[in-house]
Amino acid sequence: MATSPFFTHFDQIFILLRDWLVGYLPAAMRPAAGVVLGVIAIVCVFPGLFALTTVFERKGLGRIQNRLGPNRVGPYGLFQPVADGIKAIIKEDIVPFSANAVVHFLAPLSLVVAVFMEFAVLPMGRNMVLIDMDAGLLFFFSMSVSTELSVFMAGWSSRNKYSLLGAMRAVAQMISYEVVLLLSSVSVVMIAGSLSLPKIVEAQNSYTGIFPHWYIFTPWGLAGFVMYAIAATAETNRSPFDLPEGESELVAGYHTEYSGFKFALFFLGEYLAMFSISGLGTTLFLGGWSAPFSFLTFIPSWIWFFSKVMLSIFVFIWMRGTLPRLRQDQLMNFAWKFCLPFTLLNLIVTALWRFMGEGWLRWVVCTAILAVAYVFMGRVGTRSEHFGPRRYRYAE
Amino acid sequence: MGVTTPLAGYLLVAALLFAIGLAGALVRRNAILVLIGIELMLNAANLNLIAFWRFGPHPEALTGMMFAIFSIAVAAAEAAVGLGLVISIYRHTNTTDLDKMNRMKG
Amino acid sequence: MIMQSPFPFALKIMPVPPEAWIVRWLWLIPAAPIVASGVIALLKQAQKKLASGLAIGSLTFSLLLSLIAFGHILSSRAIIFGFQKAFNVEFPDTTIRSIVSFTWFQFGHSTVDLGWVLDPLAAIMLVMVSFVGLLIFIYSVGYMAQDENFTRFFCFMSLFAGAMLGVVISNSLLLLFMCWEIVGLTSYLLIGFWYQKPSAAAAAKKAFVTTRVGDVFFLLGIVWLFSQTGTLLFYNHGVGSLEGLALVHLLSQHAGLGLSAAGAIGLLIFAGAVGKSGQLPLHVWLPDAMEGPTPVSALIHAATMVAAGVFLVARVYPLMAAGAPLMPIGAALHGTTAALTVVTWVGASTAVFAALIAVAQNDIKRILAYSTISQLGYMMAGLGLGGVAVGMFHLITHAFFKALLFLGAGSVIHGCHEEQDIRRMGGLRADMPLTFGTYAIGMLALCGFPLVFSGFWSKDSILEAAKHWDISKGPFYLLVFGALLTAFYMTRQVCYVFFGHWRGHETAHESPRVMTLPLAILAFFAIALGVIGTPAWPWFRAFLENRTAAFDLHGFAEPGLGLLMLTSSLVVFLGLGLGWSLYGDKSPKPEAPDALEKSAPWLWAPLRDRFYVDELYGVTVIAFYAWWARVTDWFDRRIWGGIVAAVTWLFGLWAQLNRLLDVHWVDGGFDKTCEELSSGGGLLSRVEGGRVQNYLRILAAAVVALVAILLWSSRP
Amino acid sequence: MNAVFYLLAALTLAGGLAAVLLKHLVHCALATTVAFAGLALLFLQLDAQFAGFAQILVYIGAVAILIVFAILLTRGSELPKDGVFSRTWFVGLVIAAGVFAILGWAVLESVRAVPQQTAVPAVTVRDIGNALVGRYVLPLEIVALLLTAATIGAVIVAMHEKERPR
After folding, report:
1. What residues in D contact A107, CB-CB < 8 Å?
2. What residues of chain A lie within 8 A of the CB of D76, using their CB?
3. Cα separation, B22 vs C698, whole angstroms
4. Which run of H or E residues covers position B86?
5. Where are the domains of chain D?
6. What ipTM goes with this model?
7. What is the third-level CATH fold of D1-79?
């Protein structure tokens, strides 16, 4: 629905730029060079975004807690991340004496690499995807599970009980919520009929009147999105699921023994994971790069994508400022006794949705089933809440 | 080496991996390592299946691919059960050393 | 044809004009009660209101959809016949039938398809089952109010209703069989609902096992049909198993005994119906099934489930009637085949047999149970003699008045404080006026009281078909005799229960409104339904056979019809009169012998003891199984045990020998040999040393050896 | 047969060897991960995208983590005192070598006679999905059942002693 060549060009500006740059090379090298350019763009843009986000988060949290946040370095404290970065690089890199040096070194590296890989399949705008992979969603998830091993490596190699406990907690939590994350995404796949993320966006990029066909505007999509958002928060170890690095219990979790640049890498990896998982959520449920109203399609698609991602980041920060931390058993109960059954039910509802065909009936039926299940399971869940003695099964 | 076809290359890699896995299962004392060896052997078999699928006469029939996918699923189940058994045995005997695990009773 | 679709549940919809959303959503009719049943299963026992509300609500929903489906058929008829009339053309095939089918799964090249069908037969059954079921559900709220397992009851009932509706709409013999078995399961569960009573538990088992006997044949029929036609869909645009191509193929196969494969398969399926519908010789479970709660007897063992057998025969009727030479019977063309002859004779003899037994029973529900068997025999005979319309008409009318009678009986039992022996009742006419009135209507309908009641018309059309049957007049006389007996035993029962004076303990009381209201509604239909099947306006037959029906009083003027109606009326009056003269207003003492027993004891004894069929089975089938069990037990102990003992002994001998040798050698002082032996033993014991890696090692070595041998031997 | 293949094969085999030879159990587990990843890449090189990613998802995401958990739960991270190799390691090695010899022989003997397809098969994830719920629906159901049974079994086996106070 691009209205004029100007807007079309503006929309495709990065693609055009790439093609222009690549045009100077011999034809045989062009595809490879295009990919390299894309990689360079991702490797530049997202760490930049990460730097901005750290300030944004610290200032936002400050406002929530009725204080100012960083405001000394540069205008409004905007150069704070630069200062932090310089500090991280010039600090001494301490490796504990009894640590397993090789694994200790590999852990942050493999984490950041795996997280960067995830961006390869995210469509960040119309035609703006590094690799349009047929099994893109699967690729994304296979990369995101690889981070679990890095976390474990970090925790284990440090030879520190806090690190190990933090790592075990993190891995257990990530595995538990990984299931929910995957299953809630599967419902989108069932409707879109593809694992390719650009195709999923394409399936949502149409309008009834002025309203878009995003999956969040369907009963199963809303339920799936809520489940996805919860699981994503847990998956990235963000508050209120930040037990693995709960500073009141575990110092700093699995990266307690990291300092200097390696610590910065962990920090980077964590935020990149947040970006990628928000990006995936946006792609799956919020229509990816498509505009929220049909009359807004003249605004370039990549602006929409990044605004949606930043909006989810804001929600992450907001939750961190608002919600208290859960306890380990609550966390596990919530994942296995509420999220998992509910997501499974959502899958069934999605199948029903697909099976019932067009019409108002499916809206009523699907909404009713989900609402009843939500109320019922919520009540059962709260009723069985009993506060027994604490048990750390992973801490023997 | 004299290997001319790609298929033979993949099959040889699979055979070598299988042998490594088998050796691991045979020579190590630790039960978990034996399981790791078995996983390696299963993986070698998967590589065979995929290679046969890729170079076989009917790749569109997906037979080899399906076998590999099912085998991956079954391997996951096998790992879960196997490791559960190891943990359960460990609780009884306080060891995972197979050389010490030679009484056929709890 | 079924299209392969990428999505397994995506349906290939074949719409019929004008629009067919009801066809697409037809599956909701059985699905609603089944889902309700699942939900009820999760409820607590105390949530009675919610349970009954869910059950009734879901069935109401099904009833509404059924009515819409019925209306859809009616409007399709109106359009087609209106078109014919307006343009004065004749369509060669005016069958109104919409099907939806989908592939369940695929085995190699053959697919297993499921689906549902909406045609006049299914539509009328849908309305009947959901309507009668709904009334009985409402009645049960009152009847079961005090039971502690109230929710379980409604769970089973809902499951039953859903499965029964599933039987009705299935377009696939396999789907039908699945629902059929669920129906059987719920029947088992509900007969044994009060499983604390040993008799109820035994009756449930008996019902289950007896019907299984029929179902085994049914399953054989299904397998045979699938192997011959490759499809289990009934109708599938010309390639279904009941349609032209398949029938021609089946007719060309000979199955021996003068039957074609079509007839033989039909008879196997009929065997399933025999089990379910309590036909001779598998009728023994139905009277015992009265151990269940009365609403169950009304819904399952009178109105719907037992009628499922009749419905099944009607559904596969094309299979049984395939290849018949057509001849005019009454108004319609109708043919007969060997299979249909069997159906007719089984039905007719069951009708008389059960009616005879009913004469000498004293349990109010047992009488009705035998009467049900007898009437089911009428239906079967009607199917065999006159085709689908005749049998189905009696099925529909019977469903209403038999449900009415059972509910009335339940009301009586309830009012008499769980008393079921009719000799300990009496005079209830005054205590329970509403029950009496409705019961009398049901009784007269069952007897076939002339002109007013529906039973008269439906029974009459069966008799008419029997009269025109040119193979034998036997069934006609049997059925007329059965009608006489029916009137007689019903009169006897009503006289015992409602006339004379009260002989029970405590006092009887009328049942609550929630129970009497369904009675009144059913009574209305027991009368009114006759209208649609009179010779003057044979709308029902026309509906099932896709013709138009016009109101025409000349229908009565058909030759022989008047005489027939007169005969059957006379027979009914004779029965009523006989009954009244023997039992009317006498109120004998409970211990006193029956009036008939006094006059003809030689006749009474075999009737009272149900012709000794149970005993016969006891000394034949069951005795045979007991004997067989003893034989296998003996085999186990003597032959196999003996062999095992012999082997043990041999090994023992071998061991002794070994020991002797050992002792000998050791005594001989061959120390070196001894050492070697022990080290050899150690070597062998290492094989079974409990070390996993050893096992693995041996396994791998064996594989190496085997593969090496294989490769070596297959070298060119 | 190109450089990428040799590289990946070397990576995989090195991972496998390390998994078998390393002293420390956790190192073994991590080395196994390398072998798994190498295999996944080999799958990708064989144009089996779906299988490759499934391999990563299942093996690195689940099996490796399971192994690591099992190692920690059985105190396997402490080095055993009396060596990591079993007393009869030599026999095992010989048998493994024998297996490799026989397999390699079989491959070299037979593979030249077999015709092989070199065109890249055009198989999409959609085809795999269709096959899974179409022709292979029965195996799929059975695998689902197996996984459920295995999950329950593993939980029961591992939780067996929960009641007894430690």
Report:
1. none
2. none
3. 12
4. helix B63-93
5. 1-79, 123-166
6. 0.66
7. Four Helix Bundle (Hemerythrin (Met), subunit A) (1.20.120)
